Predict the structure of MYO5B protein.
Amino acid sequence: VQQVFKQLFYMINAVALNNLLLRKDVCSWSTGMQLRFNISQLEEWLRGKNLQQSGAAETLEPLIQAAQLLQLKKKTSEDAEAICSLCTSLTTQQIVKILNLYTPVNEFEERVTVAFIRDIQMHLQERNDPPQLLLDFKHVFPVLFPFNPSSITMDTIHLPASLNLEFLNKV
């Protein structure tokens, strides 16, 4: 059950983050607020079902950081440093893409300046990120089956002759 929910939450993360990276109309402060609220609801549900050890919440980390990126101030060099230290699960390319797509929804917000984006890129240039922008939502985590030893010993097993397993010898 834990492995199923980890996979499911990864898919939610990948599809939501990919949509964020591809749609200018959703890159806004208010979307960041809505995402963070929805993610907190998912995390609360995991705790309520005692699935916090499944790793499902950790798969949402890139989406959480993207939501926080949408909510942070984006003006000064200190803001750039804060963004770089916060967004460790996002690649440089993803951070820059979100900042380029950021769209103010009211007169109190401003567009992200080109100078600010260059400042972010300078801060992140030493990162060795993979070159991909979008997450692979078809990624499948390996399934692990726990080993449960049997109480039956091998010398008590009887193999019927009809199975044609004469090549097996009891030791």
Notes: The radius of gyration is 24 Å. The CA atoms of residues 3 and 146 lie 12 Å apart.
